[in-house]
Queue: 2 jobs
Job 1
Amino acid sequence: MSDQSDNPHKQSTGPDIETASRLASDREGPAIVSRRWLLLKAGIALNGLVGLALAVPIVRYLLAPVRKDDSYKSWISLGAADSFPVGETRLVSFKNPWTQPWDGETDNVAAYVRKEGASQFTVFAINCAHLGCPVRWFPQSQLFMCPCHGGVYYADGSRASGPPERGLFTYDYKIAGGQLQIDAGQMPSLSNTAKLVNIPTPGQNGSAKDGDCPCRG
Amino acid sequence: MRPAAMFALPLVLAMAGCGRLPGATAAAGTAPRPEEVMDFHALYSANCQACHGASGQNGPAMDLGNPEYQALVDDATLRKWISGGMPGTEMPAFAQSAGGMLTDAQIGAIIAGMRREWTKPNAFGGATPPPYAQDQAGDVTHGQQAYQARCASCHQGPSRQQVTSTAYLSLVSDQALRTIIIAGRPDIGQPDWRLQSGLASQPSAGNIGSPLSAQDVTDIVTYLGSLRNPAAVSAAPLPVSPRR
Amino acid sequence: MPGMKQTAKQVYDWFERRLQVEGPIKDAVLHKVPRNTASWWYVFGSAAFTLLMLQIVTGILLALVYVPSAAEAWNSLNVLNHQVPLGWFLRAVHGWGSNFMVAVVFIHMAQVFLFGAYKFPRELTWTVGVFLLLMTLGMAFTGQVLRFDQDAYWGLGIGVFILSRVPWMGGGLVHLLLGGPTIAGATLSRFFALHVFVIPGTLLVLVAMHVWMVLKLGINEWPMPGRLVRKSTYTAEYNKLAHEDGIPFVPGAFWKDLIFSGAVLAAVAVCAAVFGPSGPGGQPDPSITQTVPKPDFPFLWIYAVLSYLPPSMETPFILIAPILMIAGLLAVPFVAGEGEKSWHRRPVAVLALTSVAVAWAVFTHLATYTPWSPHMSAWSGDPLPVQYLRDATPLVRQGAVIFQAKQCRNCHSIGGLGGERGPALDAVATRMTLDQIRYKVVTGGGNMPAYGKNLSPPEIEALVSFLETLHPANEQPAIDAAQQATQSNAAPAPASGAGGP
């Protein structure tokens, strides 16, 4: 404990070093000093360059999930087209095609299949067009109701009341080998139609038109 | 943080001591998946009691708590109505296979629960009721006579108990009529097919004291069914602008 | 004893010789503050800091058990609740600590605003504070996501739909937020990183800046009417105030900070012990449609506002309002950086604060019972009051069945049960005539869907005749002029009250 003799409350080292360096620079003259500044600048430039070189892969890594919608989607079978009764709307669920082993239950997706004719379907996304909450189908009153903010839709998916600006989202579908298939994999949202849309007149099927649906990419 | 310690210490001691704080109880359950709910009371109160009444009584629809009803209907029939709905009535389909929200196991739990809660031994007091399902052809003319003789004394008057209203009959099936005639609705004073209980308050109930025969029941239902004509209930014309 | 004391001193000196922190700490602790700032009004900032420390400690403790995987997060929370001894208590303390922290931060901000403490030279302290508020709310939201139950899932869904409204970049932003096309494993992982590394790290740096500036610039003096802030003279005036009529921060003001922080911690512990942890609710399985998502307490007001916007306002409001709100908060010290600090002379500030507080309270209160949402199981779960069906005709009884079976009850309450989206119908017959009821049922209007296509004529007749019976025993159903004329022709008007206005 040789430090005992020092006064711990006095900041002794700082001023000493400062004085010494000032004396040194006085001795060394402006040319040497300006060379050091140049080297400092070179050091900054080197770090900047390396930083930029590193930033490119980092940003690409960060932006990896940002892709075109289509690249996430694929055709999924919802079961035999004949298994859906004509004139009814049924809840179906399927596994998301874009999935990781640790997704757990979150890779389940639900949709409503409305069969209008022998091969005429409308497949609604479960997400309310307002803020995405899961709408529930009530066959008795032929309405979809949303539990979050009170959006209500008619059986054809058109808006009946509440805050949604538009009707329910629909999936593209096709019938292949007797199976009803939909083009899914992307959480439906307003991202492709982030603009004001006309609110269909209540009771008219004015919403489920082509191009209205982000699921179509 | 001395003050905190002052407050928290007894608390911590209490926890170490009994470990049964209200908060622990609040955290006790794990939220079940909707299809895993198997408790009869939870299922009944969420899915049935709005129409069939709390504890199966005093609802607008059939009183499931009536022991005679429980004795009259077998499990398979109950399952059929609950799963697929009852055609000709407002009873909706509850099975997932029919677009409802309940699994077959849950429907089984509801049936078992109703049996457990509402079945009474010897519900008919030794009498044999007419069969639940119609098993013979009905006769409209005899049905009308039987209705006039056995039912009309109560079911008359300008507004009350008008079961011959076309609109009403359009909303109930023959089976629903048959069931209520046989099992009655003790919660609202409708007697069973024996036409005895619940009639004390009806002074005009004269010639009705003996049980209806199975044929009477069938014929009355057939007669009432013949009055059913949904097309006759025209949509009342809408006023142009009734708004105030 | 003296020997031990001597040794302790030696050890202390050995460290101090190397660390050299005694001087700065003494400066900070003993710096003089204006006498009347040693007030109970000045305790909220330190309480927020204490809560932040509590959140960090309990957060680390929870992270010992929590599994940040979409497949296991929900299970690990249930293990915490049920199997880890007092795991439920740790979760409850963290959850209630979060609620208290948000509340205390808001109160702190309101107090600072009311006392004009954001004025020169403390503009940057306020600016950093605004970002601290945003970080606190960010912690609350990401924490709600980590709970990873149905509320978390659909709350995140709401976030997705809000982001997706951004023009051009909406889709990309959604992918970036979720780490993929849907809410799934990647989403939880990145929210874990946000909640545990990114936001707390930023929060700590900003807190350090915030406290540093409080120490360097001095605590805001108690506002006095007429004592105006001028950039040219303020510093001298403040130093005079602090040095001539000042007291050392410790213990003069600090004891109140300590007591209040302790009381807040005790309140968190009591709430945690009594009310327990929040959730987790149902499994994060998006194919479960029987769910009624609801955000946590700090976001209830947003939830309410979003339900009251007319459809045409949704996107503009959602995109513009947050920017305006944050810009407004940031602009406060630059718009009003000088002048009066006292609330006695700042009516606009007081009015603005009061309006915001009242609006916030009203929206939060509304969101606790969501009158705008249909009650999804009212139609099958809420029984009718028995007396409403006493002496009902078969047709009326059938109308009541239709009222239930067609989900009218989901939006209209009877006897206090049912949805509140539409008006309660207990006395609808006194407000509307038979024709008006029928018209409304068939054509809808306002926020009511049209039921004309979904009800058969007998169903409409039954339903309307049931609704016609809904009036108090001592009040007659409403009738229109034609009916009134018919009635008064048939029989002399019984009493003046029968017709109504």
Job 2
Amino acid sequence: MRILVGMTLIAMTTAAAASGPAAATERREHGAHRHGHATLQAALDGGQLEIAVEAPGMDIVGFEHAPGDDAQKAKIAAALRRLGDAGAMFDLPEAAGCALTEAEAEQEALADAHGQKADAADHTAFHAHYGWTCAKPEALQTIRVRYFEHFPGIAEIDAAVIGPSGQTAQELTPQSPQLQF
Amino acid sequence: MNAPLLSLALKSLINRKATAILTIAAIALSVTLLLGVEKVRSGARDSFANTVSGTDLIVGARGGAIQLLLYSVFRIGDASNNISWQSYEELRAWPEVAWSVPISLGDAHRGFRVVGTTAGYFEHLRYGRRQALSFDAGQPFADLFDAVIGADVARELGYVVGDRIVLAHGAGAFAVQSHDDKPFTVFGVLARTGTPVDRSVHVSLAAIEAIHVDWQSGRPPRPGQAVSAEAARAMALQPKAVTAVLVGLKSRMAAFAVQRRVNTYADEALLAILPGVTLQQLWDAIGGLEKALFAISVMVVVTGFMGMTAVSLGALNERRREMAILRSVGARPREIFLLLVVESGGLAAVAAAVGAAMLYGGIWLARPFVQSQFGFHLPAGGLSAYELALLGLVVLAGCASGALPAYLAYRRSLADGMAVRR
């Protein structure tokens, strides 16, 4: 935990140092970044289902600096491959008849003061986006989110869900990984 | 157990009516508290959820999501900052946006909020199960100084279409400055919704500008500089800022993308919230408090029953002769036991009924206050299955708390027989 806090501090100070002198119109803005917490957004409308997930690099590959050696590069590549495998990340009910239409994952440096995505950024997040078309969306009551099985670093997923019955916020944990519609 | 025995028992209870009534009152109060906590909890949730049913996004100034939700929709809590009219115009033109309704808060009329908005408010706002607003009388505002009032405003202040009303600057019943130079005409009365709309006075955004047009630096005009209502009509009453914008989208799928776009909007620090999601976050935040309240009310019920047990234990000695008489008319010891258990259970049942009745009385009395202070409508409704189960548990607890004195009475009547030995 102390190492984690330390790393966060270092990351913050380097990000601040990197911003340096800037134009007067510059916007200084930082989003939240919390280790152990991933966020998920799911929307279901008609037969269309979309899910987007953002997770801190720390929880996916165990480090947030630029890959230093081939082993770390391989780790990131493997993580991206795994994140892109929608079937491994989610269990959709068979009855809903959902066909995957897109699945993509990318590693993104959290924008620093300039909004630039420096390769050497110290704070990174993984983004994954998935889309399905479902023949029977009414059968889509719950979706099991399997991120916890693949990435033990994730302790909690804050989910925002928009479904036929309205909007809800849900908190997923390894003990209750079901997304409810 | 035979009928004469029951009638004797009832007479005995009537003989002890002062204690019985006090016991019932104590338990009934605790039952009211128990049910009340549950009613307020479920009432708040349903009412809040009903109020935001048709809005996909709420856009306001950057700040706390819950604060924006509470202020813009429920009109409670601290005011959020305003956003510029220009940002609203830009947002309105986005292709994903199906409709948008700006609202401007800050004025009041005799304790009721004044909401500056557009005619789209009456067309797009939804409540409950996506029901549209409807008019009991009149129609949406047409003229600059027209007002549309909610059902509670009309009922409590006795307004009908055609009445003239004066708005006051600032919220609250004791607003210092009134806009008495520019009176409004009630042009429409909305049907009851059970949402904060019932307690709002709606005017056009231009009207909000008009009543402040001659104010300087937030102060009323100096003598001689006031602009008359007629002159205000001729002026360009373009709002410069609004409090929040309610947004409906063409497709639900776009909600997250539009939210992100608003939250990263470069020209102004804006915040978009998904009302249903923010509401859930609010409930999650106060969930622990609800549990604590429930635990406390359960404790109060338990205390009530302990009092009842203590009273009936205390009365046991005095009732020895009574027990002996009951035995002499043919009551067996286990019937004596049953009699005391039934007595406690019966008292608990009466208390549960009285408690439920007091609850509905309380709801009826507290409703206007709750609606104005906390922004939600307390539904009277019937008792839910859960509430009926709670009442059943209360009666069971009554029987259980009668068991100890009943057991002692049983033992004694075995020992004493029909005579009382002293």
